[in-house]
Write a structure and sequence with these properties.
- The longest helix has 24 residues.
- The strands form three sheets. This protein has a two-stranded antiparallel ribbon with strand order 1-2.
- The protein is α+β, with helices and mostly antiparallel strands and 170 residues long.
- The chain contains four helices and six strands; from the N terminus they run E-E-H-H-E-H-E-H-E-E.
Length: 170
């Protein structure tokens, strides 16, 4: 599993790119469905007040679910990422938070920062309606539906934006 972690360094900070196992995606989707289908749980795990996204559903995953289903996977890929990035072994691993953004048509996440040393994003579902044709914008830029990592400023021979067109399991 850790051999599948590719580390990119397009503009200074390194970006790990990997695939989330299908069984893990299934477990997360099932847990989110369980929460969303229950009004009390939806209220309890509503995380939208803590986040900047202009979206209707942002759901914090329960700690017991994280510890049982995600912690081991996240530890292994984070360990691999650190070793491949700076050739060091990690001695501590703490998950501050994990949440799911359920984003629908006309909702968006603005540019923002995350706390902590390592931050990640994973794609559990992608709408079929987001075709390549709809992703194109002026000047044939494929920006709709991308995640953009931004660092530094634009300059000659210096790329300051890394766009990624996500697929399920990214």
């Amino acid at each position: 599993m850790t051999n599948n972690v590719n580390v990119l360094a397009p503009f200074g900070p390194r970006i790990a790119r990997l695939k989330i196992p299908k069984n893990l995606i299934h477990k997360i989707n099932k847990e989110i469905d369980r929460i969303v289908d229950n009004q009390n749980l939806s209220k309890k795990f509503d995380y939208s007040k803590e986040l900047v996204g202009q979206v209707s559903q942002e759901i914090q995953l329960p700690k017991n679910f994280i510890n049982k289903n995600l912690k081991n996977f996240l530890f292994k890929v984070t360990k691999s990422y650190i070793e491949k990035s700076v050739n060091k072994k990690i001695t501590k691993f703490k998950i501050n938070n994990v949440w799911v953004v359920r984003q629908f048509e006309n909702e968006y996440n603005p540019i923002h920062y995350h706390d902590g040393h390592i931050s990640g994003v994973g794609y559990l579902k992608i709408p079929k309606s987001l075709s390549d044709e709809k992703r194109s914008h002026k000047q044939n830029l494929k920006t709709h539906g991308t995640i953009d990592f931004i660092h530094g400023s634009r300059a000659f021979l210096n790329k300051s934006i890394y766009n990624h067109q996500p697929k399920v399991a990214d």
